[in-house]
């Protein structure tokens, strides 16, 4: 009996326990990176960059870059657009490299620290040096996006198909909690800067720096807590590490035509995520420049969005367990269509309607993004996670060039942010129509994955 008991213990399945431990460490990837996404990309960078650019050319002047005349108010949108074009070249190579190595945690933290250092350099953006700030932000945005490619590729390695929606949703909730906590601190710093003996510009610069430090420090947790998973299904290509990565990428792109459902979803995601990311990236500019709210008020509203989105992500994850991820994502896109429509007519300077709009954004924001990540993972063949997520993230996290370009051009033509933000409804409509064409059953079967009980 004793021997049998020892045998039972020897063959006990420790997989769920190990996965749970890694999942808890992985959640802190979102917790850490969201500090940059909220404090920097979401709230402070765009208005501060506009003010620095206006210091250089005047409120009604124009910046001249490579022969182009750019309004200071459009500069953040164009900075994100350039970052996206570069990401289309960088992310797939990072994905191919990640799929060929067991050292994904090392790659994840290395890219994150590069992004954090670049974000920290934003502290030195002052006076009229808008070009320095634009370049530093692009480096931080690119490195951060590449790190998230690696992070998301780890999701299928630490969770079963049935665990994906829950794991992804909890990760997003951690992100909103972490980003929201730091944002609350920075909200107090910016709002009460005089009591702290700071001028407003220094308060903003210190807040930008705090996001970089937060990002770098908390990435130690996933670095130490996620195991090194050996690569599988690696393409047999020769050369050095970089040339093998390009060879792996070429083989994957050639093979992608065998997964039409994954391609259809990527096309749908291209449109609806461009809309989501452009709303996120432009929200602070819309609130300050169009509706006339102070930066402190916008920071407070953004904090409210973070708080609501934390529960929205968990709620959408639970809804997906009952109704399936696809149906819940589609309902979220309907919500986004309503949001950009209301933004067209929301009154200037009226706080309550602005807060209601923020709550609505929070409800659908975390849920649609978290479920899109886990839903797409069902269509990825084993061993190709990072490469497929690199294509996914070429369109992700403030790197949406169709949306930001549309937003910037419409603003430049109309000199108003209202039609610029309403124009994004086309992205949600097109994305939703394409998502309706995604055959979930076939996509899971083609990828050779296990069908969850509810899809």
From TrEMBL:
It is a multi-pass membrane protein. It comes from the Bacteria. One of its GO terms (cellular component) is plasma membrane. GO terms for molecular function: chloride transmembrane transporter activity. Keywords: Membrane, Transmembrane, Transmembrane helix, Transport. Residues 261-455 form the Major facilitator superfamily (MFS) profile domain. InterPro entries: Atg22-like (IPR024671), ATG22/LtaA_families (IPR050495), ClC (IPR001807), MFS_dom (IPR020846), MFS_trans_sf (IPR036259). Signal peptide: none annotated. It is found in: Cell membrane. This is Putative transporter. It comes from Nocardioides simplex (Arthrobacter simplex).
